[in-house]
Amino acid sequence: MKPFSIVAASVAAIPLLLSVVAVCVLADAAVGGDPFWHEPQLTMGEAAALKDRATMQRLIWAGVDPNAPTHVRADILKSHDIVVTPLEASVGTRTPTSMAFLLAHGTRMDRHEQDVVTCLATEDDAKEILEYLQKNFPAEQPDCAHVTTPW
Amino acid sequence: MSPHPGEANAPVPSPVEGRVWLRAAYAYGALVALALAYFLVRMPYQISDDLEHLLIAQYQTLADVIRTRFITVESMRPAMWVTQKVLFDLAPAGRYFETFKAIHVAELTLTVVLFVRLLRIRTAIDFTALPLTLAVLVGIHTFNVTMREGYPVNHFMSVLICCLAVVNLADAQSQRWWHDALAALISLYAFFMFETGALAWVCIVAAYMTGWRGISSRGVVASTAILAFYLIVRFMVLDVGTRTIGANASGYGFHTLDTGQILAMFGDAPWKFYLYNIVCAWLSVLFSEPRGGIFQFTHFVTLGAIPPWSLINVTSSTIGTVLIAACIGRRIRRWMRWNLDRDDGLLLLFLGVLAANSAISYPYLKEVVVSPAGMFYAVALYVALRELLQRARADASMPRAIAIAVPLLILSAGWTLRAANLVETMRESAFVNRNDWAVAEEREDEVRPKWRTRHPDAERLVGDLKREIVNMPVPQPYTLRATRGWFDPY
């Protein structure tokens, strides 16, 4: 190999990989693929756990019940699959974003559900959620030793 | 047809060879632009600014837009408002999103084409430097944020196009009257579109001073007269003024200061803050540090935890800047005698735009504002890389070649990753923007309580836009957790 070839390769070889990727992206897109833009199908609980308000909105438009317990796949909330309500799943985000959205779009939170999410938030040290609940749904702190939580 | 000063000594490729490499360069540029466009059209615009500008375009007539939007708070951007209004009205059957995205893609393509044209690829060595140069163009942090903007027209990219257009006109080998006329029209549009549009004038003057004569002295005078007219209208007739201290939050040291904190710290001596911003804007383009006025990398160092992306940004920029500095160093004596070739012109253009762009950034720091300087940084690095390659071909032993190749490999790997980072940030922005649109009405109620009453169809427009955007598929950025440390999240 000539010395100049080494210098030229050090300049161009790696950036040229981008063009290979670009060709693959365009070719895949041309045959109907979604390269690097695949949207996974989420349940309401998974969308809540990922702060994905747009998916929650879309599911609500599609008639999905935002109160119904749903399946949440492993590694979204926990390392294993679990079944939780969207409100419970929203605690996993540690911010009230999903919770506020759900409550503004038809989700009901009865006393039992409020106790569950409060205890989950306490256990996860989700201060923002505790503050949100305190401000918008003032109630006595439940005895979490006697409240069954999904995790 | 006269060559640029000093160009007579440059090796001249055969016409056939020149055409082959030029076509290959445009094809490569088109490939990059198309691949980025694939992601761009799938990314919803941010709701802030974008929705309000669409609602203004809906409830105001063109005459109203010109009358009421000629001046707004400390800014005068009538061409921006008129462009948005005209495109809004031209959008077929309410297909606003598609219309503005089509314009955005056209802007991106034009930017890449004009950029490649400016590089004047004619030889194999020129082409060897092109992939890395384009990676720098799209990978630099100032372009990354430019790509994601849209009000809904991407005016920051329009500024890049105006700068590239006038520089390409100035670079023409022959003078034509219409070069001057077009340069004057572009100047008029750029000045009245956005404050950084004044950089088009900097480009025209810098190109003329370095001996580029595609735009004649008449064109330079016309552009200067338009700039003077703009300044008189802005500062003397309409008294619009300009952004001053405390108008925006801005980075300082290791943190972002809000407007109150800025006033408390610098209210008595604003010049200190302005000087800080100018120096930081300058450093940011050259070293990717600080970012938006915040010495992010330095902060990570003090914490003892440097994320890979931050190290990559600073290292790749620093190596690139050292190469440019070395290239300038070898030419400085000739510059003293004002004996300049075309590459000198490109380097001086970069220095001129960098200085002017940094100066414009004095009131507050925003990365997108220095995107013209970032773009010309890529041009300057191209000149430095090509020169290095030419020297390596002429005289390189194996040990010397390896010694040069190591930093070049780090440079090219770093910038390639930064270019890939653009896609990752578009993915993340798509997710964030779509989520914001899911609460569009609630957001408007909070920010602009009277929005529903400004036009009888305002609620329908917002509802339609929201439905369209919420139904757009976007990826879940959280699915790429393993790579997060490698991609710049800012």
What does this structure look like?
The complex is a heterodimer of chains A (151) and B (490). Chain A has 2 domains: 1-38, no CATH class; 44-146, Serine Threonine Protein Phosphatase 5, Tetratricopeptide repeat, CATH 1.25.40.20. Chain A has a two-stranded antiparallel ribbon with strand order 1-2. By secondary structure, chain A is mainly alpha-helical. Chain A has helices spanning 3-30, 44-49, 53-61, 86-91, 97-104, 111-123, 127-136, and strands spanning 70-72, 82-84. The longest helix of chain A has 28 residues, at 3-30. In chain A, α6 (111-123) packs antiparallel against α7. Helix content of chain A is 53%, strand content 4%. The termini of chain A are far apart. The model of chain B has no long low-confidence stretch (mean pLDDT 92). In chain B, β1 and β2 form a beta hairpin. By secondary structure, chain B is mainly alpha-helical. Chain B is built from 20 helices and 2 strands. Chain B has a two-stranded antiparallel ribbon.
